[in-house]
Amino acid sequence: MNNNHKDVFGAAATIVAYDEPHIAGAVVPPIFQNSLFTFSSFEEMAETYAGQKTRPVYSRGLNPTVRAFEEKVAALEGCDDALGFASGMAAISSAVLSVVRPGDRIVAVEHLYPDAFRFFEMVLRDLDITVDYVDGRDHAAVERAMPGARVLYLESPTSWMFHTHDLSALAAIARRHGAVSMIDNSWASPVFQNPARLGCDVVIHSASKYLGGHSDVVAGIVAGSSDFIARLRTHILPYLGGKLSAFEAWLLLRGLRTLPARMREHQRSALMIAQKLADHPETVALHHPGLAGPLPDGLNGTSGLFSFEFSPRINIPVFCNALRIFKIGVSWGGHESLVVPAQVTRVQTGGPNSALRFGVPEQLVRLHIGLENPDDQWSDLKQAIEASLR
Ligand SMILES: *Cc1c(COP(=O)(O)O)cnc(C)c1O
């Protein structure tokens, strides 16, 4: 093998640092498990520090394994560039903090991912940045809230209630008001929704969910224009320091290889289970975008996460304890099926608006439909429903 670091990183003054086939033909990209990268000469170090050359220096800034993951997600989302983070929340907080200043206002859709909501209410509020929440399905309400806002923060479908939004229309409203539109696209994954192609400026993922796909990674990524990502890379990431690790990037590269196949399977099984629950006499409401009429333009499929409400005849603790295939636990996006009862998470605090945000129904249950046999998944749910009838 005749690969010294110059061959690997190339000489061009571009941030594209890594090209898989050039590493001895390895079909799986190597893990660059190192903190620093040495220079071949004084001159090379000087050129790099003068900005004439871009190459890895220290893994808090640029690491080739991380870079390979970033390039793939940028391509999948149809964005110029992307930047990895240590978690979905590091991605969300870094993207938002790169734009807002004290005194600014954000408009966000209701039923955000609860920790994004807590970041807004518990961190940004103390920095004198306020957030107004609107129903993203009500374009007139969004329009009314926008004047003066710096950011329109979106999630579609939303957490827990799975409301879908017309992203082209919302992105256009943000643009008209000179605001940056950002969307958490974790639920749909790039396989089913590419918000940047619909006009959204910034696309964020919790890579801990479908991108990783095996419940063994916590990571996040932000995709957007070259300018936005360059600013995030140079002004925010080095100082907040929430970098993605090479090993986790390697697991994510592996996850991406099966992402489309996994998403098809999650979609198929979840639609089957959701339909059976919708038809069940103890279900009083079902929140799954695929069973709520036509999908909005730009949402080209549905994933494995949805919720539903049981009649008061079902004892929720007994139902959860009776499940065998479905495990009780938060997060989602991996192989395993999971259940989260809203009764438990509703009591978490989230600042002054928490009652409003967590106003999800008492009998609501969230399911993640994993990759097990869907007939087995349904048998498990059916026996647990029978066991929990009062
Ligand atoms: C889990 C999740 C996040 C946060 O991601 P972490 O990787 O856990 O920090 C953000 N948004 C949504 C919709 C999520 O489900």
Description of the structure:
This protein has 390 residues and is of the alpha/beta class. The chain folds into 2 domains: 253 residues, Aspartate Aminotransferase, domain 2 (3-Layer(aba) Sandwich), CATH 3.40.640.10; 129 residues, Alpha-Beta Complex (Aspartate Aminotransferase, domain 1), CATH 3.90.1150. It has 15 helices and 12 strands. β2, α5 and β3 form a beta-alpha-beta unit. α3 runs parallel beside α10 and α12 packs across α15. The termini are far apart. The site of pyridoxal-5'-phosphate (PLP) has 13 residues, from α4. The site of pyridoxal-5'-phosphate has 13 residues, from α4.
Task: Please give the structural blueprint.
Blueprint: H1 5-9, H2 42-49, H3 64-77, E1 81-85, H4 88-97, E2 105-109, H5 114-124, E3 130-134, H6 139-145, E4 151-155, H7 167-176, E5 180-184, H8 189-192, E6 202-206, E7 220-224, H9 226-240, H10 246-257, H11 259-279, E8 283-287, E9 305-310, H12 316-322, E10 327-328, E11 338-341, H13 342-345, H14 354-357, E12 364-368, H15 374-387
Parallel strand pairs: 2-3, 2-4, 4-5, 5-6, 10-11
Antiparallel strand pairs: 1-7, 6-7, 8-9, 9-12, 11-12
Residues 87-89, 113, 115, 159, 184, 186, 206, 208-209, 218, 220 line the site of pyridoxal-5'-phosphate (PLP).
List keywords for this structure.
alpha/beta; Aspartate Aminotransferase, domain 2; Aspartate Aminotransferase, domain 1; 2 domains; five-stranded mixed β-sheet; 12 strands; binds pyridoxal-5'-phosphate
Count the E strands. Answer: 12
Give the CATH class of the largest domain: Alpha Beta
Report the uncertain regions.
1-21
* Rg calc: 22 Å
Largest sheet: 7 strands, mixed
CATH architecture group name of the largest domain: 3-Layer(aba) Sandwich
Secondary structure tally, helices: 15
Strand share of the residues?
A: 5-15%
The total tally of domains equals 2
Helix content: 25-40%
Give me the CATH superfamily of the largest domain: Type I PLP-dependent aspartate aminotransferase-like (Major domain)
Structural class, judged by helices and strands? alpha/beta
Give, in spatial order, the strands making up the sheet with the most strands: 1-7-6-5-4-2-3
- Average pLDDT, rounded to a whole number, is 91
Q: Outline, from the CA principal axes? A: globular
Bound small-molecule species: pyridoxal-5'-phosphate
Q: Could you name the CATH topology of the largest domain? A: Aspartate Aminotransferase, domain 2
End-to-end gap: 69 Å
